[in-house]
Amino acid sequence: MTQSTLAVNPQPLGIFPLPAGYLLLPPVEGVADVQSTLMQGQIPDHCPESLAFFRLALDGDIDAAYRALAADDSLEAAYNRFVLKSSPEDYATLRRIFKGELRQLLDVAAYTIGYLAMPPRRGEAQDECLALIIMTHATDALERDDGARAIELLTEAADLCRTISPLFAAQIIGTLAQTKYNYHGPDFTLIQLYQDALKLLESSSLAETRAEMWLNLGIVYHDLSSGRRGALLEAVKCYQSALSTFVRDKHPEPYALAQSNLGLAYLSMPLQEAGDQLRMAIAVQSLREALEVYTPETHPEQWASAQLNLANAYQYLPSTHPEENLMQAVDLYEEVLTFRSRSRDPLGYARVLANQGNALAHLGIFDHAVPKLEEARTIFAAHGETDAALSITTLLQQAHFNTNGTNGHGTL
Questions:
Q1: Cα first-last separation, the chain
Q2: Residues 6+ apart with CB under 8 A from 202
Q3: Is 365 helix (H, G, I), strand (E, B) or coil?
């Protein structure tokens, strides 16, 4: 028995995470209602027994999904079993049996698993099936570091299924935007791409996919802000939208990234309004949340960045007890200095020293502030950072002025 075309169209390919994103719906009674629900990115409340495998796969119970297909001798069931639990022997057997789109989708799964070195040919595939095949070619282009070709292919794939499978198109558009960002950096076209993807996802139940889009859109706004308040506020809205879904226990990595970026966005805004003082307090809380995930052992670079930003926030946080905040900042800077290497990252090391020296000077602890500022100035001067060196010279002059007659302590 052979089969060349899929009996159910369209298929919810690419909408859900793998392996469910590769599963096929068979032509059984009740499939139309389940198909409609899945195409909207929703998990059906009730499935016919013949479609229980799909619900089980969506719930992450792969073994149970595989067992639910055991007695089904249809070609779709054979393909779905391969997607759930594959072997090279099964691939060789099924490839002799399958024809047309079913064989091409088998090859897509085999390429994804690593059984094939090259993506499958397009053949006579159409719509979402063709888009899925084109996605494998985009993956191949990225593995060869051919960003231009990958962008071209992703654009084609998104256009192919925008009408027939808008949720699949949305995820392709998100991948397209991320690929453009990785190869060309942030630009305003990425904002439009992410907004298009979010609009397509609007009525779906794909909350985590939507949250990831919001996070990436926030990063683009943030990168393009150049300190402009309007763009930073847009970034903040995006991060907050992402955090309405991402929680620390279930999504630690994106949660920490969104919290860290949210804190930094608030810190980057000029203090112009009374409400900005509240934003500084939110920045501190956000960075603390990020540091619940980031540790020196697990995420050294992210930890150092969040720790440094938290120290900066404490240094400028409006308070009735500024000395306490400054002391916290000094301690946080010291922790970062134990991680930062002067030989590996001299300018980064110097910036932390300068910030710590400034905090110590504001506390009036000039005997500790001066040597740190002098070391930072030496590093900046040695690396051609003239403006930074001059600004520290000004701080040192003020410190020396206030030190006279204070035995090393005074006020800046």
A1: 87
A2: none
A3: strand
For the chain, give every domain's residue range: 1-117, 119-205
Distance (Å, whole) CA 173 – CA 167: 10
Instruction: State the number of CA atoms in the 13 A half-sphere of 287 facing the CB.
Output: 25
Q: What six digits make up the tokens of 366?
A: 């000039």
For residue 195 the two structure tokens come to 């907004």
CA neighbours closer than 13 Å in the CB half-sphere of residue 194? 26
Say what the pLDDT of residue 319 is: 79
Structure tokens at 309: 């930003």
Helix, strand, coil shares of the chain, percent, nearest 5, are 70, 0, 30
What CATH number was assigned to the domain covering residues 119-205?
A: 1.25.40.10
What pLDDT shows up at residue 274?
A: 66
Q: In 94-236, which ranges are E strands?
A: none
Distance CA 36, CA 149 (A): 33
Residues 46-82: tens digit of each pLDDT: 889 999 999 999 999 999 999 999 999 999 999 999 9
Nearby residues of 22 by Cβ (< 8 Å), 6 or more positions away: 13, 83, 105, 108, 109, 112
CA–CA separation, 53 vs 65, rounded Å?
4
Dihedral angle computed from the Cα positions of residues 388, 392, 393 and 398, in that order, rounded to the nearest 10 degrees: 150
CA dist., res. 177 & res. 317, Å (int) = 36
Return the axis-axis angle of helices 300-316 and 275-291, rounded to nearest 10°. 150
CA 120 to chain centre: 29
- The candidate with the shortest Cα–Cα distance to 214, out of 197, 228, 200, is 197
CA separation for the pair 411, 366 (Å, rounded): 9
- The 10s digit of each residue's pLDDT in 268-318 is 987 776 667 788 899 999 999 999 999 999 999 999 999 999 999 998 887
pLDDT tens-digit series, residues 244-257:
999 999 999 999 99
